[in-house]
Amino acid sequence: MFEPLAELELEKVFVKMIDELDETGTLAVSHVGHILMELAKEYPKESIFLLSEIAKYSKSFETRKYAVDILSELTLKS
């Protein structure tokens, strides 16, 4: 039986999705950085937790680095 979407940890689902796209070569790391930057611009407060999860759990060093860089920018602006 499927878990209701509201009960899933959406941040971890997003991290897994990014990693799977990155592994298959479907999504270039530069595109991941662009997606994360746009997300942070649109939802700065909401994206802090998501970016910290990506920084901790992403398999890609470059993706983790993008997340840390964007988090640094967000916290400096706060």
Q: What secondary-structure arrangement, pairings included, does this model have?
A:
Layout: H1 10-24, H2 29-42, H3 44-57, H4 61-77
Helix pairs in contact: 1-3, 2-3, 2-4, 3-4
Describe what you observe in this structure:
By secondary structure, this protein is mainly alpha-helical. It has one domain (9-77). It has 4 helices and no strands. It has helices at 10-24, 29-42, 44-57, 61-77. Helix 1 packs across helix 3 and helix 3 (44-57) packs antiparallel against helix 4 (61-77). The longest helix is centred in the C-terminal third of the chain and has 17 residues, at 61-77. The protein is globular. The protein starts with 9 loop residues before the first helix and ends with a helix. The model is unreliable at 1-7 (pLDDT under 50).
Which series of helices and strands comes N to C?
HHHH
* Helix content class: over 70%
Mean pLDDT over the residues? 74
Rough shape?
globular
According to DSSP, the number of beta strands is 0
Note the main attributes of this structure.
78 residues, globular
How would you sum up this structure in a few lines?
The protein is an all-alpha fold and 78 residues long. It has helices at residues 10-24, 29-42, 44-57, 61-77. The chain has one domain (9-77).
